[in-house]
Every structure is written in C-alpha cells, then in structure tokens.
Amino acid sequence: MVSWIISRLVVLVFGTLYPAYSSYKAVKTKDVREYVKWMMYWIIFALFTTVEVFTDMFLCWLPFYYELKIAFVVWLLSPYTKGSSVMYRKFVHPTLSSKEKDIDEYICQAKDKSYDTLVHFGRKGLNVAATAAVMAAAKGQGVLSDRLRSFSMQDLSSYQSDPVQTGPSAAQPTTAQHRTRPIIRSKSESYKASS
C-alpha cells in the first residue's frame, strides 16, 4: 500500500506536474527544440498511462512493480537518458507512420457514426419527451373533467340559487333575486324530469 501511494505521488509530481510546467515554459519562450522534446514526452506518457491501467490490474502483485513504474517515469524525464525521445523515435513514430492512414480513416468513421448515433438517439429522446408531454396533458385534462363531473348539476343549480346573504334581507329571498338566477339543468336531468 505504501509503495502504491509513493508511486502515485511520483507519477503525479514528476510525471505530470513538472512536465506540464516545462511544456508551459517551452511554449512561452517559443523554443522549438524544447517544444518538440515535451511533445514527444506527452505522447509517451499518454501511452504509459493507458498501459498502466491494465498493468495495475494484472501485474500489481509482482515484486517491485511500483518501484519499476517510478524508475520508468524517471528514465523518461532524465536529460541524460532522454527516455521519452528514444521511445518515441524507435517505437512510436515508426508504428504510427505505418498505420497513420488506417488510424485517420477509423477516426473519421467513428466521428460519422457517433454523429449519426447522436442524431438517432436525440430524435428518440425528443419523441419520448413529446409523447410523455401529450400523455401528461391528456391525463391532466381527464383529471379536470372528472373533477368537474363530480359536481352534479343539482349542486351547481342550488349553489347559484342559494345566495350567501347577511343582514335583514337574508331571511327571505326576494322574487327579483330569484328570477335573476336561472336554474341550469343537464340534458339527462331534463330528460328525467320530462319522463
């Protein structure tokens, strides 16, 4: 556990932060040699971190595994060994140069497929959202009509014919007040009354 923590710290400080600052200095001073040196380092470091994900899962039980990782990062950075430059020139550059057209074609296809997939799922998402909105609106309308149906027409007519009054005239409704409030009946109540 201690070896893992130390290797993480070394990789963070010496493998990431120091090279990042040195890259900043190279860009700021516009020193092409330093810029190329740090670009080669970052390419090798990206490959290292990719491989590290798998080696950490399967090879972490090896003795001195974490110490070897620390030594590799130091070797990459060392101005004496020029590890990142050596690895780039001997392995990475020749490999990428021979496969460059295939890689570019694959990236282009992946971009096209990802765009098509994004559009497809975007349309599906919009359809689902629209369907959900329509269903919610229909359900809401049904709830409103059920709520209105719960009031019978008799309730509405008695509500309109029973005014809330206070004062001396509250005991007896006048005939003029009675005439101004028509009784509303539904068709079914009218049919029942006529039968």
Automatic annotation (TrEMBL):
Lineage: superkingdom: Eukaryota
Residue intervals passing through the bilayer: 38-62
Ranges of Polar residues composition bias in the record: 158-177
Region described as Disordered: 158-195
Keyword Transmembrane helix set for record: yes
Biased composition range(s): Basic and acidic residues: 186-195
Membrane topology: Multi-pass membrane protein
Keyword vocabulary terms for this entry: Membrane, Receptor, Transmembrane, Transmembrane helix
Entry coiled-coil feature ranges: none
Family to which this protein belongs: Belongs to the DP1 family.
Name of this chain's protein: Receptor expression-enhancing protein
Species classification: Eukaryota, Metazoa, Chordata, Craniata, Vertebrata
Gene name of this polypeptide: REEP1
